[in-house]
Specification:
The chain is an alpha+beta fold and 132 residues long. It folds into two domains: 30 residues; 92 residues, OB fold (Dihydrolipoamide Acetyltransferase, E2P). Helices cover 23% and strands 46% of the residues. It has a five-stranded mixed β-barrel with strand order 1-2-3-5-4. Strand 1 and strand 2 form a beta hairpin.
């Protein structure tokens, strides 16, 4: 009979290996940039790979935008592709952009990403209770 300690160790090993494999598949061996790093020093970046969870969406005629969030921050992504659903995980390649806007005599700027290629999307995980 296998001890409880051994079973817990085995389960932890399986989850760790599975998690590492999933991360590696999702990353596709590309250098992922943290959103917080872009927000701090956007001039230091031109083309980036980002991954994160999608949030708010803003459809436009012929294009749209969605908010992408990782553990370090949030950023808007402008795309001509169909918008991902809120909660989907996305891996993308994009161009860092900055738009300066005059508002009330002040210059207000916003950093965003122009999506060049959506490399991978993972749908929102549905919970068993979602349909009840």
């Amino acid at each position: 009979m296998i001890s409880l300690k051994t079973r817990v160790f085995q389960l932890g090993a399986i989850l760790t290996i599975g998690g590492l494999t999933a991360c590696q598949l999702f990353n596709r061996n590309v250098p992922i940039t943290k959103i917080g790093d872009i927000q701090k020093n956007w001039q230091g970046y031109s083309e980036v790979y980002l991954q994160g969870k999608t949030g708010d969406r803003a459809p436009f005629v012929g294009s749209g935008a969605y908010e992408l969030q990782d553990a370090t921050g949030k950023i808007w992504v402008v795309t001509t592709q169909p918008l991902p659903q809120p909660g989907e995980r996305v891996l993308l390649k994009g161009q860092v952009q900055y738009k300066n806007i005059s508002a009330g005599g002040k210059e207000v700027g916003e950093v965003y990403i122009q999506e060049r290629e959506q490399l991978e999307r993972q749908p929102v995980e549905k919970t068993p209770d979602a349909g009840k």
